[in-house]
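[stage:ingest] chain + small molecule (NAP)
[stage:ingest] validated
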Amino acid sequence: MDSISIPELPLLASPSSYSIPVLGLGTAVYPFPTSDQISAKEAILSAIKVGYRHFDTAAAYQTEQALGEAIHEAISLGLIKSRDELFVTSKLWCCDTHPHRVLPAIQNTLKNLGLEYLNLYLIHWPVSLKTPSYDFPINKDHLLPMDFKGVWEAMEECQKLGLTQSIGVSNFSCQKIETLLATAKIPPAVNQVEMNPVWQQKKVRELCKRKGIVVTAYSPLGGQGTPWGSNAVMECEVLKQIADAKGKSLAQVCLRWVYEQGVSFVVKSFNKERIKENVEIFDWELSPEEVEKIDQIPQKRGYQAFDFIADQGPYKSPEEFWDGEI
Ligand SMILES: NC(=O)c1ccc[n+]([C@@H]2O[C@H](COP(=O)([O-])OP(=O)(O)OC[C@H]3O[C@@H](n4cnc5c(N)ncnc54)[C@H](OP(=O)(O)O)[C@@H]3O)[C@@H](O)[C@H]2O)c1
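[stage:predict] done
[stage:export] tokens:
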């Protein structure tokens, strides 16, 4: 089969004219690390074959190595000519969100991937941990407030050193974006947040649009089967009805809706058929009536971030963590 060409969005905050492919493959499989690194690698190779060029990993997922191996195999198989054809995102884990730990963390990520540079490096969560640990769930006794200014300066340094083309954040509320922007010399190129028809993120999207920050939707299908996700999206009646009427799958309706919102998104599948199904969303569209129906779906954040909330920690409730955006 010919591979599908995936549209891209410009990363306005980046110094050069970089762009992000709107659709990327997620690689978070809980528990971390996935016991099956081989299937992670095979899934990534299948994705490259059908046209995926954007891959999302993180130090915490422990899939950086599988992604790196898949990239090198894709080059040796001739599926791509060089790593430069891909867009690779990784993320700084909470134990490394200390100014002096950012550089060693990205260097370790690059070593795991076997790459010389990332396309995008994100602060995974706006929180820090006292001790080096990539375990999830985290030890809540180790939660600390993050030094926004100092950590972002270290992220800026990573970009200046050429270790990553762009830098960004993840799970940032409007208020946290504003806090970061107040001292940032380089604005974040991306904010990666949970977004799907059941949690549409209108407020964050509006602010990001005004500030030239691209939103990347994670859990676009609701992250079913993960500790941070639920079946709320895949069992949504409104989406089911639209899918049946259109002869598309519910997942495709969902991903098409996310795409039509003008954001990028990362969807995880390690199944060959579903990897292909998820990319077949660029040659049809939702009608204004269908978009209107999706707009009316009652809203509920899937992941409240309870893992990061503790009486002795910097955030004592989901309201505090998300600055009221719940
Ligand atoms: N920044 C963050 O804090 C953060 C948080 C969560 C996730 N993420 C990133 O976002 C990625 C995607 O989010 P996610 O993994 O939470 O959830 P998701 O992509 O919304 O959903 C993944 C689940 O849906 C299934 N699936 C995929 N395509 C399907 C289809 N066409 N039909 C039916 N089921 C389908 C997958 O199973 P199969 O594999 O069996 O197909 C998997 O169980 C992650 O992998 C990760 O890279 C980032």
